[in-house]
């Protein structure tokens, strides 16, 4: 990290060179995510070369390829990209607001809250896929609201938010366990698949709501990113600098909860993307601050790559994407804890 | 003393403010004028409300009654960034984000002068360099803030507040946690900012002798009320110190500067008199 900061020396270069690195990282991640998407679209029982995939995407493929690409595989990949981007951005927001890498939605129990909503629909109402998604969305939003209200004490602060989140998460996990024991075997199997997080069978019906939400929330969040940067120095300092701290925080938390809950509704609680994407992005940009665009692109790239791994890396057997992100994310979390401990921070 | 121009309207004042955290009232019906171009220091025993008053003056704490007035307007009703271009604050609690360099941190002081389409002008660059030069941290510009000593770090935070380029600057116990050399260092810097740049400074200080030496205008608070205010030479007496801090002492002339120097009475003298120590304990408990 030392070497890049040499760049922060000269006048004029001060902010520009930092931006160049962050910008390059964002571009590369975007390219990586899109390239992985093309590979992923070409992957399956009926493999299609990347060149054909691209040709088909630009409307010049043959009818068979067009059907496979546009109707079967593209929506799944788009859901993957959008879910990954939402989780990456939501995670970066939460981690920045709580000033703690552990303050991410996975740890705070938003995923569990969404699961509770989904399980309620599956177990108690035998709901359709759309009803399950709606249940997950509502579950996530209610959990987010509960955490915010419980953690509120003259503003929401890091450790308090994390501890309250862990408490809420424990309660909701217990509720989820109860719902599972109440369910019959068919519902239970369906619930477990949902809970692992999967992109199987996702189609255009999942793409549009996610895309619409991202189209509104991403610009809104990014336009408040500068205030969020200031808030990392503490409420007093940022307030003194003219940031309307409570307003920005409430707005960004609502956005983060919406992003996370809707992503979970679309793909199930895909574990650890929200936790790892911002941390990985930060290590690539080497810039202080929430690194929102980089986290967003990192989340998208991670999820698509993990989905490809889940389809290809384990032979004929396909795994739900949540298993792969869980293994990768868990390993990463352990590594993070070990290095943080060496740095004397935990 | 000549700088205490009561005839004109001062830029910053509190009018009959009642200050409270939740239900706990710290001060009632308190009115304070910060004389323009002064180096005002607020002193008083622990829990007398001095930091609370500073928080109110910097619009961190909304008075439950009364108002704080900046340039003739109620401070709470002004746009946040406009206030931040007029009045800066160095709070006690500030967090240097992980992996941030000195230059980057000082640069963040430019926030109120920037917008989404105006993120880093040459003026920003110039002011940041200037602020780092004034505070003597220019050569640390590409160092990480985490690596610095406490004294250096405090200078960096002051540089950030300077980069905000506000005519008024409020400092909440800027010398806490620093050793004596760095305390004097920071106070010298404040005096310099006041004398050479004509900024109005308001600081909360614990050390009465530092306050008496550096302040041009002193405000002595006790239990949320102003006991005395004015030039240190005029108001710092043994009687005042006993009244405000409950401490028996002598006040002599500082051999270096001629400002009042508070010398606490010897323990035996205070214990013998009986009241002094007991009174101090009572003040502490409140």
List keywords for this structure.
heterodimer; A: 346 residues; mainly alpha; ABC transporter involved in vitamin B12 uptake, BtuC; 15 helices; globular; B: 286 residues; alpha/beta; Rossmann fold; 6-stranded mixed sheet; 4-stranded antiparallel sheet; 11 helices; ATP binding (chain B)
Describe the model.
The complex is a heterodimer of chains A (346) and B (286). Chain A is mainly α. Chain A has a single domain, classed as ABC transporter involved in vitamin B12 uptake, BtuC (Orthogonal Bundle). Chain A is globular. With 286 residues, chain B is of the alpha/beta class. Chain B is built from eleven helices and twelve strands. In chain B, the strands form three sheets. In chain B, strands 6-7-8-3-9-10 form a six-stranded mixed beta sheet, sandwiched between helices. The radius of gyration of chain B is 20 Å and the shape is globular. The interface between A and B is large, with 31 and 46 residues. Chain A: Its main location: membrane.
What's the short story on this structure?
With 346 residues, chain A is mainly α. Chain A has helices at residues 13-42, 50-57, 63-98, 105-108, 110-125, 129-151, 158-182, 185-196, 204-223, 225-231, 235-240, 245-267, 273-285, 292-312, 321-342.
